UniProtKB/TrEMBL annotation:
Keywords: ATP-binding, Kinase, Membrane, Nucleotide-binding, Phosphoprotein, Transferase, Transmembrane, Transmembrane helix, Two-component regulatory system. This is histidine kinase. The lineage of its organism: Bacteria, Bacillati, Actinomycetota, Actinomycetes, Kitasatosporales. It comes from the Bacteria. It catalyses: ATP + protein L-histidine = ADP + protein N-phospho-L-histidine. Residues 8-21 have a biased composition (Pro residues).
Length: 454
């Protein structure tokens, strides 16, 4: 038998202490590490790269303004920077030209990619300050940033503030201050430090431009919301008009379905010699008609469920038609609008849907006259012409029946929405618009035929 000792099983790994049990210093270090990681990501991830500044402006000249300003800064700062580096700081002309170009030319890139331009300018500025440590100019006074560099850096801050995120701007500001105060340690004797000046100026410019950008973004979102709200209001108005029209047309369709039901039920009694198959067919027709009436009542209950319709008594009242237009005109006259009615003596057989639509169109047109043109002379004309019912409501100077009217811009009122829906429902056409002399016209043509509109 083997006497070798058995190996002890390995101990399980010690679990990490929960976050709540970790010391406060550890949690603070984690937060600082995450904050710096976020700053690094913000400084390396530009916002909308390639999109020019002020690209959303409506004016073409405003969109071109950043290019003009950037070109003006480069053409003025480039020779000035080279001259200051050579004459004041005693830098070699070749090095002065290279650093002057690296510190000013990226301002052109800042129009479309300000964060990338900042990286180039920032690296050139720091490297240029280190090179100036070995220079001995006769007129050098400022350290570590020459005056043209301060001007160009401030212009770059404006471009950054108009484009990048707040975290990226905060990182740029911290990097500017850190570089300036670190270089201050190596300041040569006799120089005046301007690191604090640039640190403060860059912070103020970044704060102001980011506030301007935030205000512009808020205004743009407000305009978008207003546009969406207006579209939603128009859509809601249209749906309300369609629901109201559907409620009114219910009585028209229900009347026809009731007639079908009565005729189908009474056919076996009115026609004694009717075959048995025909009796069953009429019974099926009557049952289908009654079922359709039931479904229509359910549909109407849905349309009336919002509680915004008329009262119950008004819903049960007979739907109006052309025979009540005279009462509309008389009520308009009593409201202070001189109105005239020309109603054809024999309109013939007008379908109920067309009859109701014509009445509602005249009602809406006269209501608009009372609201928007009180006291204006108004004429209402209703006549038939080759299978069409023509309804004309004109306010303003009187017009002859055959006179031509220039069509104006279509109205957008709540009443006009209902008119268009009624005309579309019947397969007719509607022409609305202002007149050259200041009046307004509503002209509707409704088909008198019974065929379905295309």
């Amino acid at each position: 038998m083997s006497t070798e000792p058995r190996p002890e099983p390995p101990l399980p790994p010690r679990p990490e202490p929960p976050t709540a049990s970790r010391p406060p210093g550890h949690r603070s270090a984690v937060r600082v590490r995450e904050a710096f990681r976020g700053l690094g990501a913000a400084l390396t991830t530009p916002t909308s790269p390639g999109a020019p500044l002020l690209a959303d402006a409506s004016s073409r000249w405003v969109r071109l303004l950043p290019y003009v300003v950037a070109l003006a800064f480069v053409t003025s700062l480039l020779p000035t920077t080279v001259l200051v580096l050579t004459d004041d700081y005693g830098l070699d002309s070749a090095l002065a030209g290279a650093f002057g170009t690296a510190q000013t030319a990226p301002l052109l890139l800042a129009v479309t990619r300000p964060l990338q331009a900042w990286w180039i300018v920032f690296a050139a500025d720091v490297l240029g300050a280190l090179v100036l440590l070995g220079a001995d100019g006769p007129h050098a006074r400022l350290w570590p940033w020459p005056p043209p560099l301060v001007v160009g850096y401030c212009a770059l801050m404006v471009a950054l503030g108009l484009r990048e995120s707040r975290r990226a701007l905060f990182g740029v500001w911290l990097a500017t201050g850190a570089a300036g105060y670190l270089l201050e340690v190596f300041r040569p004797a006799g120089y005046t430090g301007v690191h604090t000046l640039l640190f403060v100026l860059s912070g103020v410019l970044l704060l102001l431009t980011s506030a301007v950008r935030a205000r512009g973004d808020a205004q743009r979102r407000l305009v978008e919301q207003e546009t969406i709200s207006e579209a939603e209001r128009s859509r809601r108005t249209l749906l309300e008009e369609r629901a109201r029209i559907a409620r009114e047309l219910h009585d028209v369709v229900a009347h026809h379905m009731s007639v079908i039901t009565v005729q189908a039920d009474s056919a076996p009694y009115r026609i004694p010699e009717l075959p048995e198959a025909a009796r069953e067919e009429f019974g099926s027709i009557a049952a289908s008609a009654r079922e359709s009436l039931t479904e229509m009542r359910r549909l109407l209950s849905v349309l009336r469920s919002d509680g915004g319709g008329e009262g119950g008594g008004a819903e049960l009242a007979p739907q109006p038609g052309l025979d009540r237009i005279q009462q509309l005109v008389e009520a308009t006259v009593r409201a202070g609008v001189p109105a005239e009615l020309r109603l054809a003596a024999d309109l013939g057989d007008v379908p109920q849907a067309v009859d109701l639509s014509a009445y509602r169109i005249v009602q809406e047109a006269l209501a608009n006259v009372v609201r928007h043109a009180p006291g204006a002379a108004t004429r209402v004309s209703v006549r038939t012409d080759e299978g069409w019912l023509t309804v004309l409501v004109v306010n303003g100077p009187s017009l002859e029946e055959g006179s031509s009217v220039e069509r104006g811009a279509p109205g957008t009122g709540h009443g006009l929405v209902g008119m268009r829906e009624r005309v579309r429902l019947t397969g007719g056409s509607l022409d609305t618009g202002p007149l050259p002399d200041g009046g307004f016209r509503v002209a509707a043509r409704l088909p008198l035929g019974t065929e379905d509109p295309e």
